[in-house]
Amino acid sequence: MTPAETTHRSGSWRSLQAVLAGSLFSGATLTLGSSAVGSPLLLLGVPLVLGAGVLLMLWPAVAFMLTAFIIPIERLGRLTADDAMYTISLMRIVGTLALGSFLLHALIRRRAIAFGSAFWLYAAYFCLALLGVFHSSHQLGTVRACGAILGNLLFFWLVINIGQAPRLAKTAVALWLTSTVIVGVFTIITWHFGKGVSEADLGETASRFSTVMVDTSEWEALDSTARAAGPTSHAAVYAMNLILTLPFFLYFLKHQRGARWRVLIGGGLLVTLYNVFLTNTRAAILLAVAVLLLCGARGLYRFSAGGVVAACLAVAAMLPLAPEAVWHRVLDTSNYSLERSATLRIRFEYWAAGLQVAQDHWLAGIGVGNQQVIPLYIKGDAPEETTVHNEYIMTAMEVGLLGWGVFFGFVVLMYAAARRAAQLVPGRWPPSLLHADFFVAAQVAMLATAVYGLQVDVFHFPLKGWWLIAGISWALYRVLLEEKPIHNSERSA
């Protein structure tokens, strides 16, 4: 291409950007301005919203980083109630803009769009889930679940296309961690100075800024207890979102040389761990401890006698500060029994019922999101709608044996990609660009999610942090396969 052609092409691209920006600004101003008549504050905010929208459409990388930043916000960014058939949220709006921005740039610049075997594998699972709409006895739940699966597929597609640059991928993860800390600080403040709401009211738009739920699931032994749910719909969801970040906090803490940054990262880690504690979720607290130990075993930090002693002293110093609700539910060892824990008894009943449902519907399943079947298999009192509280049984119930294999084949493929990428990085990229520990952290996070699924239907959560990690691992793995090995001298440099 000649210099004149290059100049002409760049000039055409700038003209197209100006036309696109003007069109978006003019059209959206007319639409939103007409609806905002009578609301001066909303009308004043229209230019800012439109300017942000234009910015996101013009720079896909900025849109991608903003999408990563708002992942932990969840319920705070939802514009509809949690039980609505089609939920509208800030995450979906920004994610849609990011996807549209990428497709627009790919079309204009004739850039190849990545799909790959992982995308098509999860797309096949989406198709199997969609078939459940025709035979599900709970069509509202199935339609809602299919919408969530489609959202996961599109978000994964966005990540594997934009997250192919190592520095951009690290920045996106860092923004995700930053937002998690901000949300964690807000949750701590509302826990100590705010009021809790019931689990049923937590999903209502009026309770959007409530971060503490009052749990009555073990009223026989504990009456009611407070549990931090953060900006999510349940304490168990919030706990898993937090646990996913722990390996990456340790990764950045290990590879950050600046003292100030290390203090900030360490403070963020402590805020996150304290929030896990406030979720008052026994399985989550035990899993968080296991994740920290596994991170040490995988080299994300070094074990030392002094470090172990310091950690024990820190835990001992924090125990007297533990809220009373945490003492009653988590730290009282007598609650870890079938006699004292109603949730443990209920889970065994649900698992037995779920296995029977999976056996009766082994071919096509009962439809994703169908929560009205399990109560029919429970003897005695049961809620009208409930899940089986086990991801592996739940998936087998919903989509049958074939769908179970497709979905967990995708999950295993994501872990294998992270594992293989960790092996390829040292020979292809210098540590200053991206260290293999990044993919070790991804592996630990994925393993933690798989373990958490043994006692709750974890992949039915809006677990966008997991999808961000999986998408980045898959995207960078594919890039690494095409990279040429570097020599020792280049690696040292």
TrEMBL record:
Molecular function GO terms recorded: ligase activity
Membrane topology listed for this record: Multi-pass membrane protein
Tagged with keyword Transmembrane helix: yes
UniProt main location, coarse: membrane
This protein's UniProt keywords: Ligase, Membrane, Transmembrane, Transmembrane helix
Regions that span the bilayer: 15-34, 41-73, 85-107, 119-136, 142-160, 172-193, 235-253, 260-277, 283-301, 308-327, 401-421, 433-453, 465-481
InterPro entries: O-antigen_ligase-rel_domated, WaaL-like
Annotated localization: Membrane
Positions of the O-antigen ligase-related domain: 269-408
Keyword Hydrolase tagged: no
Gene Ontology CC terms: membrane
Pfam family, one: Wzy_C
Name of protein: O-antigen ligase-like membrane protein
Species whose genome carries this gene: Roseateles toxinivorans
Organism ancestry: Bacteria, Pseudomonadati, Pseudomonadota, Betaproteobacteria, Burkholderiales
